Amino acid sequence: MLYQRRHPGAPWLTPEATRLLDSMLRPSDIGAEFGSGRSTSWLARRCTHLTSVEHDETWHATVAATLAVEGITHVDYQYHPRDEPDAPGDRSAYAQVAQFLGDESIDFALVDGLYRDYVTLFLLPKIKPGGMLIIADVHRYLPSQSMSPFSLRPPAAPPTAGWEQAAAALAGWRRIWTSSGVWDTAIFVKASGAGGRPFR
């Protein structure tokens, strides 16, 4: 919380992940994020184009107003509400935004919103070789040795079949796991020739 107060414009990721991304992102990068907020402006200032998806209408209006005040015009900012509780997340308009991105068309993607398992699966083939997949609160979804609250500790399995598929697909990616002790952020770097076949 002290870090967040001292860095009011920083995204809600771990401080280490924020520092790493600040050095790894390039002005020519094209990115996507699922779950908007302070990260939207922060990422947009470090790339040439950003597709951002939000499910909360009030929050979408707030972030859109911030982008307008800051003069940021290169964000395709989309609002897609949460589906009914029993609706399959993989068919949601929110998650389907990832499907409409071109294969190997983006340099980075941040997963920090709804349907994270399906969004992650859909994004894998969309990321260029050498590109990054950033997963916020990753300790809740993938087993690790993290001591952050609600962490999945081995031999616990990922909470959904979607996360099991994502974990298997990400096994060949370079992984940078960071923790604040409260929440974790992982940066996965796609290797050349890493598949990440589209989820069907």
Question: What do these coordinates show?
Answer:
With 200 residues, the protein is α/β, with parallel strands linked by helices. It contains seven helices and seven strands. The chain has helices spanning 2-6, 15-24, 38-44, 57-69, 93-99, 116-123, 161-169, and strands spanning 30-34, 49-54, 75-79, 106-111, 127-136, 174-179, 184-189. The protein has a seven-stranded mixed sheet with strand order 3-2-1-4-5-7-6, with helices on both faces. α5 (93-99) packs parallel to α6 (116-123) and α6 runs parallel beside α7 (161-169). The longest helix is centred in the first third of the chain and has 13 residues, at 57-69. The chain starts with a helix and ends in an 11-residue tail after the last strand. Residues 196-200 have low confidence and may be disordered.
Biggest sheet strand order reads 3-2-1-4-5-7-6
Distance between the termini: 40 Å
Averaged pLDDT? 92
**Beta-strand fraction estimate:** 15-25%
Class by alpha and beta content? alpha/beta
Query: What Rg, in angstroms, do the CA atoms define?
Result: 16 Å
General shape: globular
The SSE string, one letter per element, is: HHEHEHEHEHEHEE
Low-confidence regions: 196-200
The largest β sheet comes out as: 7 strands, mixed
The portion of residues assigned to helices is 25-40%
Number of strands: 7
What is the number of helical segments per DSSP (H or I, 4+ residues)?
A: 7
